Amino acid sequence: MSPTPYRMNVLIVDDMPTNIKILGETLRKEYDISFARSGSKALEMVDDHCPDLILLDIMMPGIDGYEVLRRIKKSPDHAHIPVIFISARDDEKDETFGLELGAVDYITKPFRPAVVKARVRTHMELKMHRDRLNSLVHDRTRQLIHSDRLATLGTLSAAIAHEVKNPLHYVVGNAEMIMDDILGGNMVSIQQRAVNIVKGAQRINALTDRLKGYSKKRGKSNIETPLRDIIDDALEMLRYRLLKCGVEIRTAGVDKELTVFCDPHQISQVFVNLINNSTEVLTDGTGVIVIRAGKTEESAWVTLSDNGPGIPTDKIDTIFEPFFTEKADDKGTGLGLFITRHILSRHGREIHLTRSDASGSEFTFTLPLK
Fold first, then answer.
1. How far apart are CA 214 and CA 114, in angstroms?
2. Which of 14, 67, 224, 248 has a Cα at 20 to 30 A from 5?
3. Boundaries of each Histidine kinase domain copy (predicted)?
4. Which CATH number does the domain 9-134 belong to among 3.30.56.70, 3.40.50.300, 3.40.50.2300, 3.40.30.10?
């Protein structure tokens, strides 16, 4: 049995029952109809069940149509709803004012059913196309985020091999020495080497869990997490790379008491991308990256600065665009800063380049506390 096709919903807002009846009879064959006879009731209904389109009268007692539209446009959850003003006012100034507030169209009374149908159908079709486009952009951006994670892992492949190799040698070395201890009957040494083997295996296991967590596709999942833990996770991913490049990490204000409300895996990716970006230009063994953090009443703030050569002036305006890179073709995707900005945007936050000169660059962003 095929599912019932979705019928789009039109909310009619007018204090005159006659107008509601005319518009309802005009549209109900094609759409589900709901109605409100006041601006305050309309706002309640929009909160309870988001309509696909609103036909909104301007002149109403209490909250008028202009104010209803202002409040809808201020809401991130409802600003996308197309609103068509319906009014007896046919002055060009009124129509212009309504469109400037954010209405998508303006229909004058008395209503002409054919015009009402055509206008509503046009804006419903535009809404469907816009929703499909937004969905496509969302899906593609999620794919880019995942691609960026995998590209970062590819860039860090030498470091990953090194991280596994060291504890593996530790495990193998202790296992070989246990064989000698067994022949010599040295039980104390055998016990200690067994403990060492377990530690080495746990180190490898922790690394593989971290890599799986970093590369896994996942939805947004915000929890309260110490910022210190997020930064430590990113630094652990980059530990060998930082050693190889001779880059020193310094922190200030990053303590266990500072917790943030975020997706820790995604914010860890933000730190990996920013630190990775800095290490690309810190190649002389004297590089320093400083991570500072603190909080206000509403947010935690983070700055990440380096002592590199800075970003060229002519590139500053484009650094957050996709595929921006100063690296060779095989050295990066050019998605790091773009993905970083997108992740923070999904958390309702922004990132800014707050300094870039001969003494280095500095990025600043905030994170929610709750």
1. 56
2. 14
3. 159-370
4. 3.40.50.2300
CA distance 306 to 315: 17
Q: Hey, how many other C-beta atoms are within 10 angstroms of the C-beta on 238?
A: 21
pLDDT by residue (tens digit) across 206-260? 666 655 655 555 555 789 999 999 998 888 777 767 888 889 999 998 888 899 9
Reply yes or no: is the peptide bond before residue 110 cis, omega within 30 of 0: yes
SS3 200: helix
Burial letters 145-170, b for 16+ CB under 10 A, else e: beebbebbbebbeebbeebeeebeeb
Residues 115, 107 contacting (CB under 8 angstroms): yes
Query: Is 357:304 a contact under the CB 8 Å cutoff?
Result: no
Q: Is the dihedral of CA 252, 256, 258, 261 positive or negative?
A: positive
Pairing of strands 259-262, 223-226: antiparallel
